[in-house]
Amino acid sequence: MIPDYTESNFAGIEHGDGISVIRFHAPWCEPCRRSEHQFDEAVTQFPATVRAGKVNVMQAPVLAAKYAVWGLPVILIFKDGQEFARISGPQPASVFTQGVHNALL
C-alpha cells in the first residue's frame, strides 16, 4: 500500500536521503482518478530503496502551495530532500519509472 502524506508527516520526505516519488492528487480530479493505476503500477517497478507516497491536496493545501501544485495530478520526484523532477498530468507508468531512473544516476 502506498502511504498518504500530509503536512504533519512530510518532513521525512523533505529532509530525507535517497529518492522519493510523491503523487499530488484530489478526490474530485477526474484525470487523477483515471491515472491512479499508472502510478500504482510504476511504484511496483521502483527499487526497494525508493519511497513512494501520495498527497491529497484537499488535506494538505500548504504542501500543494509550497510546491506550486496548481494542476493535477502532479508527480514530484525528490532526491535527498530536494525537488529533482516534476511530471504533470496523466502519464504512462514508463514516464514515472524513467524519472526515478534519472534520479538514481
Automatic annotation (TrEMBL):
The keyword Electron transport applies. Pfam families: Thioredoxin. The keyword Transport applies. Keywords: Disulfide bond, Electron transport, Transport. It comes from the Bacteria. Residues 1-105 form the Thioredoxin domain. InterPro entries: Thioredoxin-like_sf, Thioredoxin_CS, Thioredoxin_domain. Gene3D superfamilies: Glutaredoxin (3.40.30.10). One of its GO terms (molecular function) is protein-disulfide reductase activity. Signal peptide: none annotated. One of its GO terms (cellular component) is cytoplasm. PANTHER family: GEO12009P1 (PTHR45663:SF11). This is Thioredoxin domain-containing protein.
